[in-house]
Amino acid sequence: MARGHRNDAALDDVSREATKARARQRRRGPWRVVFWLALVVLVGSLSVLGYLIYTYWNGQRAYDDIVEVAFEEPADPRAATLADFQVDWDALRAINPEVVAWVYIPGTPINYPVAHKPGDDQYYLKHNFANSTTGEFGAEYGCVMLSGENNGDFTDEVNIIYGHNMRNGSMFAFFNQMKDNEVFNEHRTVYLLTPEGNYLLKSFALDHVPGSSTDIVIPNFETPEELTAYVQDRIAQSIVTPLPPAPAAADITKVFAFSTCDGANNKNRYITFCYVDEFLPLSVAQAAPGFAPEVSGDDVAAANDASAERVS
């Protein structure tokens, strides 16, 4: 009998342990589901982050490759003349025949080709210079582009150039940093190189405006006085002070503006406005290789007329 009682007790112990195990299993079940769900979310988030990082890397690499084949930066850009800047336009046209310029600011990441699709300011928001796109997800570099309302040969009085404000500091993100007065004055020189000739631009204002503004993109005016009023308004709204001061508004007869989103909610823009400090026509550079005469702002209009005739 004693042995039977011991066996019954052992069975009872086994039963109790099995009951406890089943209870633990039931309690553990929901947490196990939560764990696996959390693991799936973590893996998915890391995959998304990895893809986003890849699109940033791949987007900039595509432009770095273009720089390698088409643009040669002078050894000392700050001491270079306009004739020292060389762009392989044939190589660029082989990639994208809609290329119209190259924009470069020494000491910054801004070093990109500029494309232009007449009448269209949307295509190059989501297509890079090689006409590739990341689709609906990923870091979309797009392409630096001349406004579709402008002429592709830069013969307009006001030429607007757009670029994305990328979170890794590439494309036109540096223009956002120019809201700091010291940064603005340290980087007032902008080189715009075109098939018709090379421009050395100097910034004179930085405006922070709503993206819906309709009084900025005005390629041409009916009278010189209207252009002067436009320039004066840009100076009046500037959030920085150029040092040394810019020329008088009436002396600025051609404007280049570089526009990008402010990054906060993409509803506003920072626009850096520049005047032409020098211009080297293509015909002069070809006639005297290595020689870079300076063309004053007063002669820019005549030079542009000559350029327009060459490309018409």
Written account of the structure:
By secondary structure, this protein is α+β, with helices and mostly antiparallel strands. The protein contains 7 helices and 10 strands. The strands form 2 sheets. An 8-stranded mixed sheet has the order 4-3-7-8-10-9-6-5. A hairpin with a 2-residue loop joins strand 7 and strand 8. It is elongated and about 105 Å long.
Sequence-ordered SSE layout with sheet pairings:
Blueprint: H1 2-70, E1 71-72, E2 86-87, H2 89-95, E3 99-104, E4 111-115, E5 145-146, E6 158-162, H3 174-177, H4 181-186, E7 189-194, E8 197-210, H5 224-237, E9 255-261, E10 268-281, H6 282-287, H7 300-311
Parallel strand pairs: 6-9
Antiparallel strand pairs: 1-2, 3-4, 3-7, 5-6, 7-8, 8-10, 9-10
- Tell me what portion of residues adopts beta-strand conformation: 15-25%
Order of helices and strands: HEEHEEEEHHEEHEEHH
Give the overall pLDDT as a whole number.
81
Shape: elongated
Question: What summary fits the major beta sheet?
Answer: 8 strands, mixed
Number of helices: 7
User: Which structural category fits the helices and strands?
Assistant: alpha+beta
Number of strands: 10
For the CA atoms, what is the radius of gyration? 30 Å
Question: What is the gist of this entry?
Answer:
The chain crosses the membrane at residues 33-57. The chain is α+β, with helices and mostly antiparallel strands and 312 residues long.
Tag the structure with descriptive keywords.
single chain; 312 residues; alpha+beta; two-stranded antiparallel sheet; 10 strands; 38% helix; elongated; disordered C terminus; transmembrane; SrtB; Sortase_dom-sf; membrane; Class B sortase
